[in-house]
Description:
Largest sheet: 7 strands, mixed
Keywords: Signal
Helix content: 10-25%
Oligomer: single chain
Protein name: DUF4232 domain-containing protein
Low-confidence stretches: 1-41
Amino acid sequence: MKGTTRGRMTGAPSRWLVAGAVTCGLVLATGPAAAAQETAGQRAPAAPCVSDQLIANSAERIGGSQVRITVINDGPEACVLRGFPTVALAGQGSPDHNKPLNVVRQGQANPVQLAVGGQASTRLTFTPVLGEADGYCASGAEPTVAPSIVLGVGGGGLQLAPDDGGEFALCGTTVRATAFRGSGP
Length: 185
């Protein structure tokens, strides 16, 4: 009985050495070539989204001081949307004539992969105007009213009006914005 156990113990280390050598040889033999084959089968990462391929229909009101804006990748290829939007108030004319707002970023930004037709949303929160009709600001500042905003995304701007046909009304020059998050189909 002692001989059998001893025989296994003596043979076991040599078998492990042979198995280790064979495994290392296979790993070394397949290293760079296997990695190249594996990478060749994968797609390259999508390029950053540019404003020319993004569309948005309107700013969807969520209560009195928030809007949700959903952008859609209108193609021609998939892209990656990163970070937070910039926001500016504008009239009904050219989006180039606007008044930038200070954006307070909320939450953590993660890249959003947008296939063609893919959607991503951000939520904007304004300091509300109080009262009826002309309204007032709790801070004592004059309320600001604008028929549209310009959402800065993908290196350009998308000019949007509220979905209810109203106007944007806010106190101050600051807006809080969430990072873009994937949404919808």
